[in-house]
């Protein structure tokens, strides 16, 4: 399934119902999977909405900057910085949606030749490595935000530097949550293995 069709399918109501036949007649498990699917979908929708708003704001900022610079001949000094920070936040948040959709680069040329247990072991080790990386990125991002919390950008209304850098721990946390929720959903686990 392509990324575009996956994003479009997010607008359908309760895709978790499709998992019910797969797990058999276990009402508690079905309800749990529906809940996990609903949470996963809600996080993805909210993230996509925020990314959309950030891109619109970035577009308006750049448009205003060009208008002021070339038509009014009075450039906005902070427009480039704001556009840069909006782009950073939008791309980092969109990476979490990429984790949910499985849109990030993966090399499975060697893994595809293995079967059964070895493939599951390699998939588990890959998941563990990615999860460890994301948790480390979250922790180090928090430490970095704390270290720059007293610095500011004079060009952008004395913006605290922890605000742009907070994109790192926030997106790492969202990617970890999406990765973990994706592992709980049966359809996504089978696609990987």
Helix and strand topology:
Layout: H1 3-9, H2 20-23, H3 27-71, H4 79-101, H5 116-147, E1 152-153, E2 159-160, H6 162-165, H7 167-184, H8 186-192
Antiparallel strand pairs: 1-2
Helix pairs in contact: 3-4, 3-7, 4-7, 5-7
Structure description:
With 193 residues, the protein is mainly α. The chain contains eight helices and two strands. The chain has one domain. The protein has helices at 3-9, 20-23, 27-71, 79-101, 116-147, 162-165, 167-184, 186-192; strands spanning 152-153, 159-160. Strands 1-2 form a two-stranded antiparallel sheet. It starts with a helix and ends with a helix. Residues 11-20 and 189-193 have low confidence and may be disordered.
Q: Could you write a compact summary of the structure shown?
A:
The protein is mostly helical and 193 residues long.
Secondary-structure element string: HHHHHEEHHH
How large is the count of helical segments? 8
What is the average per-residue confidence, as pLDDT, rounded to a whole number? 81
Output the strand order for the largest sheet. 1-2
Compute the CA-based radius of gyration: 21 Å
Main sheet properties = 2 strands, antiparallel
Count up the domains: 1
Strand runs, count: 2
Q: Strand content of the residues, in percent?
A: under 5%
Secondary structure class reads mainly alpha
The helix content, as a percent range, equals over 70%
The unreliable regions are 11-20, 189-193
Distance between the termini: 16 Å
Taken from the alpha-carbon principal axes, the silhouette is elongated
